[in-house]
Amino acid sequence: MRRFVVLVCAFSLVASHAAVAQKKLIEFGWDRPSPAFVAANVAMMERQPFSGVVLQFAVGPRVFKVTGVDTLSLNRDAALLANTQFHRFTDNFVLMGLTPDSTWDWFDDTTWKSSESDIWRYARAAKAGGLRGVALDYEPYGRNPWDFRKLPHGDGRTFDDYAGQVRARGRRAMRALQAGYPDLTILTFFQMSYFDRVAALAREDERNRALAETDYALLASFVAGMLEAAAGNTRIVDGNEEAYWYADSLAFWKGKQAIKEGALTLIPPAIQPAYRARVQAGQTVFVDYLLGIFQRTRDTVATRVAPANRMKWLQYNLYHALRSSDEYVWVYSQKVNWWKPDSLPSGLVDAVTHATEAANGGTPLGISPGDLFR
């Protein structure tokens, strides 16, 4: 515990006194644009306070499929992006989803070869289009490939059997990504940050049992495999989706510590140097939640923060997300559509701009949670 407190204090001192690197906001949400939309609207989009956007190819995001992707469509999208003149948007990513088809299987080599080919094609199109890399979405919107408890256990397959296979697939997935796009950046919405509570358990046997009982039990093995195969300047950003719900600045620094140090308890010792060298701590803010548009069944911002203070609450969270990230903060929205400027909540663009400039300038924001809560 004492070591953890020292680490948090050290992070705070760095945030307060060291020169602040320029951090970048990446927009992602239900309003995610297609390459055609970006090409037609880039001037309007770049008036918003971001360094880039997560877009979606016309063929959709999924690569864990039993049939191959339409290469001609990918090539058309890549050409549209390559011919688009970006100025402010220097760091764009394409969404790559890992929700599998209903018959997709980690142990099916034929199916895997199709997926591997699609991964390579997506990465190649991202590079050809001038993007920074891919945004890897591990969340399953349907069948879950990570939950060992819900996968076929034919032939007596154990958790270790699956973990070894998924780790091997992780190596091949990374090789396919790098073959299509050497030295790429992989932005994830969460990764080892999902396991912060598991990683904090004292004993290895406790961690192993708890990991096997999570919805993403096999994700740690996939990440280990990717890191084994990572080469050159390839890097992975853990976007720390849990930060949606943070309520004070210390939570952001604890989240960063969980990514940079805590997660190592779930990473094999031989791979830990690669993890330290390649994994960046990202952060996120959920615009709809912080503004009271999205309502949780418990702990809703609407019950804790008065409407007049919610824009300041967004500023506070964004400021500390930026200060605690290594480089990237992704700004998530569902009902807020950034590409319909006339529909945006009043003051939103100014609030995001002010928080970003203050964070990157190393100047105090002057907002305290105690001044905002009811």
Descriptive overview:
This protein has a single domain, classed as Glycosidases (TIM Barrel, Alpha-Beta Barrel), CATH 3.20.20. The chain is built from 14 helices and 9 strands. Helix 4 packs parallel to helix 5 and helix 13 packs parallel to helix 14. The chain is of the alpha/beta class and 374 residues long. Helix 5 links the parallel strand 4 and strand 5. The chain starts with a helix and ends in a 13-residue tail after the last helix. 43% of the residues are buried. The chain has a 9-stranded parallel β-sheet. The N terminus is likely disordered.
Helix/strand class: alpha/beta
* Beta-strand proportion: 5-15%
**Any idea how many domains?**
1
Helix content: 40-55%
Overall pLDDT, averaged? 93
Order of helices and strands: HEHEHEHEHEHHHEHHEEHHHEH
How big is the Rg? 21 Å
Quick one: CATH superfamily? Glycosidases
In order across it, which strands form the biggest sheet? Answer: 7-6-5-4-3-2-1-9-8
Count every beta strand, where a strand is a DSSP E run of 2 or more residues: 9
CATH-level-2 architecture: Alpha-Beta Barrel
Distance between the termini: 32 Å
What does the main sheet amount to?
9 strands, parallel
Low-confidence blocks of residues: 1-20
Could you tell me the CATH topology label. Answer: TIM Barrel
Give the CATH level 1 class: Alpha Beta
